[in-house]
Every structure is written in structure tokens, then in C-alpha cells.
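User: ok so my PI wants both of these folded by tonight, can you help

Assistant: No problem, let's get them done. Here's the first:
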Amino acid sequence: MYLLGVKIDNVDMNEVLKKIEVFLADGRQHHIVTPNPEIIVFAQKDKEFKKILNEADLSIPDGTGIIWASKILKGDIKEKVSGTDLMEELLKNQKSKCKNQNDPSSSPALAGHYGAGISKFKIFLLGGKNEAAEKIAKKFSNIVGFTENINEAVELINQGKPDILFVALGAPKQEKWIHYNIDKIPSVKVAIGVGGAFDFISGKIQRAPNFLRKIGLEWLWRFMLQPWRAKRIYNAVIKFPCLVIRARITH
């Protein structure tokens, strides 16, 4: 469906992982975007950004607010799939080479395709701050490189020849970087903008408890930890609902 003019695919986590299987195997390059309420608000004023989002190969529903808005606007988005959760799922499979192949913590979708060779896909990390990417890279042997510096990114990515690229530059910078640079990094088959995921996965910032995530209050946790995000949180929890309600009334 289109939510305030932004395409959102009705997919759950397992379906996303299955699509990534196909993307990794088909020889083409693919851009995955992770629209959340804040991103959709940004896209209302940035036509270039909205176009990039809508041209992506897969647009996953990143936020409880997206599910709520879908219901208000009579859509059918069934499940939140956050960029952080997706990145964790893909990284978790990198550890599977050290585990029993039947370990239930490994993704059934990816395991079904790659089997014993699941650990063969390579990952590069671009962005983040304060050595967050380096901390993640130390945990997973299939991460072939990382950098916080976008000026050296293309060269380093081409040296590592990764299959998957995670970009944590924040929206809309990360989506625009991928859009304009993906053809310069031909080994990359899947590029995903993941916002603040590096901070959470590296342990730099503690993620909200599960119960807060389930009831849609992860934003409150982030505000308590990062009060400087007040304007961005306002866009997500005040401005976005107002835009959705207005759209419901006018249509």
C-alpha cells in the first residue's frame, strides 16, 4: 500500500528474509528501505527522497506507527519489521557457521537456501559513530570491512567485495547515498539503510525492553536516553498521526 504517498510492502520478517535470499541469488543489485513514521514525514517535503523510497526493491514497515496508520487508512500491513531486527537476523546467520545447522536461532528462510553455505555472504558496514561499526565487526567474521567516512566508502567496499551493505547515516542521507552510489559498488547485491541500528547492535545504546517495543513506546525510551532527538520524535509521534488522521478525513 501507499502510506501518505510512500510505498510500504505488506511483509513479515520471514517473507523479507526469503526475498533477500532471492536478491542475493539473482545477480542484480537491490535497495531495501525501512520507512518509519519519521521517514514518511520527511518524505512529504522532499520529493527526491520520496521518489527514492518508492523506487526501492523492498520497503519494509519499520514502526508500530506504520501498522496503526495502515489500519486507520484501511490498509493491511500485518507486522512491524524494523531495520535493527532485520540486521540482527542477517548477522545472526553469520554465526551459524559455528553452530549446529539445525540451530533454531538461525533464520529458517536463509538456511533453507544456503544450507551449509549460509556463512558465505559477506557484509560491509558504512556509517555509525564512535566506533560502533568496528565493535560489530569484531563479533562477526563475515564482515569484510567498515568505515564511518563516506568519502572513502566506495573504495573500501570494492576492496572487500561484500554481498550485503548496511548503511547507518540516518535518513534521508543513507537512502540517497545508496541510490546514487550502488552502481559504483557492483559486488553489493543488497543495500539497506538502517539508521541507528549500529548503536543498538554494538551495545552503545541499550534498546528499549520488548514490552515497550510491543506497545509502541520505543520512542519514549529513546527520548529518555537521547533527549536531543525531541524534534525527530515530535515528527514521529505528533506530526505523523496528525497527517494520517487528516488523510483519513479527506479521503
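One down. Here's the second:
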Amino acid sequence: MTAPSIPLPRRRARLGRYSLWQIRDFTINTAIVTIVLFGLLGALFIAQIHAQTEMFAATHRPLPPTLALHTYNELLSMFSFTAPILAMNGILATDRVSGYTRFLFAKPLSVPAYYAQSLVVRLVGFIAVACVMQALWGRFESPALSWKFVVDMTAFVVTIGGIIFALSALTKYDGLIAVMLMLLTALLRERWMGSTGVLHAAAYVFPPLGRLNDVQSWFIGLDPLSDAATGVPFPTKWFWWNVGYGLAAFAIGFAILRKRSLTKA
């Protein structure tokens, strides 16, 4: 006679072990690309500032301080709106479309916990990459890396990252739709806010992304109205409106994640 088999308990996956893979994937697929791309752009912008300085020096005039800050502001705007998309794109959709979820969750593992951890890795990774880029910039031109910069980048990545996270829970075209939403926001929100009735109400569907530039002006200390390098008050209303929108989008994304199949693209 054979002894009856004893069912062995199913081993659970260790969530912390997955973080090593998440960090590696972010570093290889996002961090390195972002640093190289914006490092090259930063070098071009620094060369432009130095050329402007030499041009003014040739005419025995000092370079206006706001001119260099405007050049930096242009580069920072490009980074602030583009880098969060690179960091967050496909956070849910890639695993689902590629079929990775079949292997990731072969052992018992909380799906929301896994993607919450992935989200933290990407958010912290983005802030770390941004700080590295800003520290490199500060070695050649002002402004230098400061806590205000971290606040500025946090506002951007939470707002844009939340939008992409919610879209990634719905569709594999999360990055593309996020870009389209940002363009529609720039085109329609302010116009509809000045309307009445349904259009005015519909304007609140779009986040006030343009007002994130106010947070950026606060960090740089460049008043966009007076074009003066002076202290700019912190835009509390627009900071929390955007961050609140992003946090609400994260909550929606997790709600969709609990309902939607992980095996359907």
C-alpha cells in the first residue's frame, strides 16, 4: 500500500524580491535613456547660454540674469512633461499585453501590492534621475539642486503619473492617450473654463496642467508676469489641485486593477 500523499502548502511569492527586478528594469529601460537624452539636451542648452554670454561680453554688456533662466526654464519644461511619461508608460499595460502576468502571479501574490511597489519604484526612480540631472546642471549654471526642485518634480510626476497609471489599467495605449489628453488640456481647458453650462463643467475633467508651470516658476524664482528674477510665492492652489487630480487617478487605476482581467490586452 502507498501512503496517501500529503498536500503541501502553496508557497507565496516574496514581494520584496520583485523590487530588485523592478529597479533593474527601470534603470535599464528608463533611467539610462532619460539621463543620456536629457544630458545631451542639457549640454546643448549650456552651450547656448555660454554662446549668449560671449556675445554680450563682445559688446561689453553683461548677460541679463533672466535670459539664462529662461533658457533653463525651456529645458526644464521639456523634462518635466516628457520624463514622467517615459517613467510611467506601460506600468500595467506592458505586463498584461506581453503575457508577463501569467508568470508574475503564478505564485500567490497580491496584485495591488505588486503594482503599488512598482509605482513607488518608478516615482522614486524618477525623482532620483531628476535630482541627478539637476545636480549636473548646477555644476555649470544656476539654479542648483534644492528641496524646491524636489517639490516641483513631485508635482509633475504625481499628476502625470496618476493619469498614465489609470490609463494603463484600461488600455495598452496609455502613453499615447496621455499625450493626447495633455494636448486637449492645453487647447480646451482654459477656453471651456470661460464658457458656461455643460462646457464649463466639462472643463473640470481636465487637470490644470498648465498651472504646473507656476510651481516651476516658484522653484526657479522667475516671475512670468514681470519677467524678473525675484521671489515667487508658492502656488498652493494649483499645486494641490494637480497633485489631488493625480492621486485620484491613482485610486481609479487601482480600482480598475481589482476589476479588470490581467490576461486581457
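The CA atoms of residues 72 and 218 lie 14 Å apart. The chain has a mean pLDDT of 87. Good luck tonight!
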